[in-house]
Design a protein that fits this description.
Layout (H helix, E strand, L loop, with lengths): L14 H4 L7 H22 L4 H20 L11 H19 L15 H21 L3 H17 L16 H27 L2 H14 L4 H30 L5 H24 L3
Helix pairs in contact: 3-7, 3-10, 4-5, 4-6, 4-7, 5-6, 5-9, 7-9, 8-10
Amino acid sequence: MTRERIPQIEPKASASSATRPGRASSSTISTRIATLHSAVVAVPRAASPLQLEDWILAAWVALAAPALFQAQGGGGLLAPSRPIDGLLWLVGVVGAAVCLVTRSPDQEIPARPLTTGIPSMVAFGMFLVGVGACMALGIPTWVGVAPTVAAAGFMFVYPMQLPGIPTEPPVLKDGTRRALVVPYCLTTGSILYGAIGAIFGSPNLIRQVFISVAGSTPAFIPVLIVSGMGMVAGVAMVYAVLVYYPRQIVRPETGRILWIARFAVFLIGLVFGMGILSALGM
């Protein structure tokens, strides 16, 4: 008599045990880790609107620009014999011109670039900075104006689809365009200190006037507050033409809070630089 072998049935895993904690598949775990990593990485980007360019610009107006202002003898905005400022302005205009006629790989091609406000404001600022560079260096004016004219001419011609002329702006990497526009943004330091020197004579005079008037005639404190707000508004206009609009050409960014925070950091650096010059008696 042969003994029959009874097949053994293995127990199936229940649905509850499949979804029980600790029993997840390796692919599910990898997906969760990737999601957590993305969330952690995204937090600092959302919480930190300031970029490297903002810190460089703030440090420049706080330390480097006042040192250059003192080394070149102070003076007004259009004072001659300012070779360092003039060279920086000229390099900045060339870099801004390259950014104006190029685009990043993910940027759309504007149909009529010169009819929009931002490129026109950048070209306007480039023209003024180019003229100032030539006066500071003592060279012919056309040298500083040529990059602006060439960039504006290209932006005017390429939408016409003329034969032998590129029909769209060349493509440059985003990091390259960001680096090229930095020298142009740094011109704000020497331009603002030069304007202060031309209007008030020196930053030290501004401090002395504010302190003496506030101490002797408190009734004029509201006038000083309004004057201070007017000075901040003037600085904001320069910041918009030389920093905000050029950086919008390179990488369009929206958000008022974002740019208010960046301007605040810039303004703190400028006030710190003026304090250094005041302490030195300039």
